[in-house]
Write a structure and sequence with these properties.
Elements: E1 3-4, E2 6-10, E3 32-36, E4 39-48, E5 54-56, E6 62-64, E7 68-75, E8 80-84, E9 94-100, E10 103-108
Antiparallel strand pairs: 1-9, 2-3, 4-7, 4-9, 5-6, 7-8, 9-10
Length: 128
């Protein structure tokens, strides 16, 4: 189950801050709305390989460890998000960001349609 990825947006100046902050680093206000940041372009990809292929858990079972592919995604809204991507993703690919719990994952391709009624898309988009 995943939902579109949103980032905090300052209600005073429109600055997008990710990761979330208590006070806006631009204007100092402390009230935040949300802005949709669910599409972007992969800038960098890195692969984290486990030292051992298998790891024994404290209760005796063995856990197969797989490599994790991470990417820095520059969202169309502005902020740069580091998230997991599917193996085979390359720099320059367009992805759709989805929130899964408290983390972000990037799905290949752009499949989410824009929501014209969303007030979160209004206002200036600034980098992080
Ligand atoms: Zn602000």
């Amino acid at each position: 189950m995943s939902t579109p990825f949103v980032v905090p947006r300052c209600t005073n100046c429109g600055h997008l801050a990710y990761p979330p902050r208590i006070l806006c680093p631009v204007c100092g206000h402390g009230t935040w709305g949300r802005a949709l940041a669910d599409t972007g372009v992969v800038e960098e990809v890195t692969v984290r390989r486990p030292v051992f292929k298998r790891r024994q858990l404290p209760w005796g079972n063995w856990l197969d460890q797989e490599e994790t592919v991470l990417a820095a995604v520059r969202t169309d809204a502005g902020p740069r998000i580091v998230c997991r991507v599917a193996p085979g993703t390359r720099a320059g690919d367009r992805v759709t960001l989805a929130a899964r719990g408290s983390t972000a994952i990037a799905l290949p391709g752009q499949v989410v349609e824009a929501e014209p009624q969303s007030p979160s898309n209004a206002g200036p988009a600034q980098g992080s």
